[in-house]
Write a structure and sequence with these properties.
The structure holds two protein chains of two kinds.
Chain A (H helix, E strand, L loop, with lengths): L2 E4 L3 E4 L4 E5 L13 H8 L8 E7 L7 E7 L5 E6 L11
Chain B lengths: L5 H9 L17 E7 L3 H14 L4 E4 L15 E2 L6 H15 L1 H5 L10 E5 L2 H16 L5 E3 L1 H7 L15 E5 L3 E2 L2 H14 L3 E3 L4 E7 L2 E7 L2 E10 L5 H6 L8 E10 L9 E4 L4 E5 L5 E7 L11 H14 L8 E11 L6 E4 L5 E5 L9 H14 L13 H4 L6 H4 L4
Parallel strand pairs in B: 1-2, 1-11, 2-8, 4-13, 11-18
Antiparallel strand pairs in B: 3-7, 4-6, 5-6, 9-10, 10-11, 12-15, 12-16, 13-14, 14-15, 17-18
Helix pairs in contact in B: 2-7, 2-10, 3-10
The chains are: A mainly beta, B alpha/beta.
Bound molecules: flavin-adenine dinucleotide and zinc ion (ZN).
Zinc ion (ZN) binds next to loops of chain A.
Chain lengths: 94, 416
């Protein structure tokens, strides 16, 4: 069971959260000008990293706010939690 | 290859079973192969077998970082069926089921196929409609599929609670009688033995750490046992598909998630078919040893821990105990996890890649055991001819660019 440190509520049980997938994927600025390949990249292609991974979570059974998290997908260690819109803290930015 | 038969069994009994020949060789890797298959699970081994048998390509190595079948093949709950919604999937999975039906004879290896019937339950109006649509689609594709009322279900599975007061009322089910289970290790071992017999080198305890390329085409692989040259490299590594593709700078629409299963203590025969429910996220069958084999949904977060999250265990047990109240007295004996590679449309990728001579077979997610023979068949064709077989052409990587997705979330949503 993961213990996740919500930046607004503190440490809570994994069951209170929902997963939001890879973080820092930017919605294309000019969708109408996008090629099919660029759409496929935005919609479907994912890094699926083994190791440190930057991802989004939402505290759905608590404050209902989104935040970012750095987690090691090989052993589930939570390495950092930071706010939406923020860049990853130095110790976890690749 | 020494054939297995009643006579060989008797002969070996006389010598106290001490003289059975090895089922396959364990050669050192050669310097070069025509085809290197990465991953010694069912899919990789079946591919090697059909490369040799259907296409006469025998200068082939299967390279496995652990032991044969030690990935998802040996961790899965072995449900086999072909009742998928769309024509593309129905054709592919049905081809596979037909191969399964003759596989023990074909490989001279008992894979213990037991066509005991697979039930998919409906718990609400939406489930009912979805199920009827799928049953009709299956029949149009020549796949056996029938509707059962709650009374039919009670008749077939007396221990299931189908009363209207049930926490998850059972409103009907689809039944595929030809569906069932098989012995997972035996599928891997049977293909390994038969491929080895045709000259394929099976190399275990050897991890691929890099994919060598020159001018946009593969030239071999880097491994923990040295460099191996190859004209073609074919990936069949399930949960690690993204990792291997990354070595050749190929981006994939795959995410890897833990998926777990568990078994109860063994009891006398009590359940003689497979029961699955998408809505409550659980499925169950009884093994030949008497254990209740139960599987759940995937962990929603991505991950490579072959373990699985605890809340999923709880959710699964809740579903099973509501469906089968008497099973609440059973004790759980073992729990384990595998890493499944899921695609956005819950369909696999069996395809060429932008890199010449590099092929990918992955994204089977929670349901690729049933596809093992068919997947090997079409993948071998794709590798040998450098062109997709008609059965896997719709499952090419390009579908994520063209938008021709094959959405099987209804037929594949719960793990199976
Ligand atoms: C708990 C669970 C239950 C399931 N239940 C069902 C079910 O009931 N029915 C069904 O149809 N499907 C089911 N599945 C899915 C099914 O198990 C898989 O889709 C299928 O077995 C995949 O086979 P494979 O040969 O592609 O992969 P695997 O058997 O995982 O083989 C891949 C192999 O590649 C090796 N490998 C990885 N990286 C490297 C490397 N760098 N170098 C060398 N080798 C490498 C791994 O060690 C592994 O042995 C289930 C899966 C799980 C985890
Ligand atoms: Zn919170």
């Amino acid at each position: 069971m993961l213990i996740i440190d919500c930046p607004y509520c503190g440490k809570r049980d994994e069951a209170e959260f929902h997963y939001g997938g890879e973080a820092h994927i930017v919605r294309p600025e000019n969708p109408s000008e996008l090629s099919d390949e660029a759409w496929a990249e935005y919609l479907f292609m994912r890094s699926n990293t083994k190791g440190r991974f930057l991802e989004r979570w939402v505290h759905s059974e608590g404050c209902r706010r989104w935040f970012n998290m750095a987690r090691n997908t090989a052993n589930n260690e939570v390495e950092a939690v930071y706010l939406m819109g923020e860049t990853p803290p130095k110790e976890v930015s690749k | 290859m020494k054939r297995y038969s009643i006579f060989s069994l008797v002969r070996n009994a006389v010598s106290h079973h001490k003289d059975w020949p090895k089922a396959w060789r364990s050669p050192d890797p050669k310097a070069e192969y025509d085809v290197v298959i990465v991953g010694g699970g069912g899919h990789g081994l079946a591919t090697a077998y059909y490369l040799a048998k259907n296409h006469g390509i025998t200068n082939v190595a299967v390279i496995e970082k652990g032991w044969l079948g030690g990935g998802n093949t040996g961790r899965n709950t072995t449900i086999i069926r072909s009742n998928y919604l769309w024509d593309e999937s129905a054709h592919l999975y049905e081809h596979s089921l037909k191969l399964y039906e003759g596989l023990s004879q074909e490989l001279n290896y008992n894979i213990m196929l037991s066509q005991r019937g697979v039930l998919n339950l409906a718990h609400n109006q939406h489930d009912l409609r979805e199920l009827s649509r799928r049953i009709s689609a299956n029949r149009l594709n020549g796949i056996d599929s029938e509707f059962l009322t709650p009374a039919d279900i009670k008749n077939m599975v007396p221990l299931m609670d189908v009363s209207p007061e049930a926490r998850y009322p059972v409103m009907g089910a689809s039944l595929q009688k030809r569906g069932g289970v098989a012995r997972h290790d035996a599928v891997a071992w049977g293909y390994a033995r038969a491929a080895d017999d045709r000259g394929v080198d099976i190399i275990q305890q050897c991890e691929v750490t890099g994919i060598l390329r020159e001018g946009g085409a593969v030239t071999g692989v880097e491994t923990t046992r040295g460099t191996i040259k190859a004209k073609k490299v074919a990936l069949a590594v399930a949960g690690h598909t993204s990792m291997l593709a990354q070595m050749a700078d190929v981006r994939l629409p795959i995410t890897s998630h833990p998926l777990q299963a568990m078994v109860s203590e063994p009891v006398k025969p009590a359940l003689d078919c497979v029961v699955m429910s998408n809505a409550v996220h659980g499925y169950i069958s009884q093994s030949d040893r008497g254990e209740m084999v139960m599987g759940a949904g995937i962990d929603t977060m991505t991950g490579y821990t072959q373990r699985g999250a605890l809340p999923v265990v709880e959710e699964l047990q809740r579903a099973i105990v509501c469906l089968f109240p008497s099973f609440s007295r059973l004790r759980l004996m073992r729990q384990w996890g595998g890493i499944v590679d899921t695609c956005p449309d819950a369909s696999p990728i069996v395809s060429k890649t932008p890199v010449g001579g590099l092929y990918v077979n992955g994204g089977w997610g929670t349901g690729g055991f049933k596809a093992t023979p068919g997947s090997g068949w079409v993948y071998a064709h794709t590798i040998a001819r450098d062109e997709a077989h008609e059965l896997n052409a719709p499952f090419a990587l390009e579908r994520f660019t063209t938008g021709a997705l094959i959405d099987e979330h209804g037929a594949a949503a719960v793990a199976h």
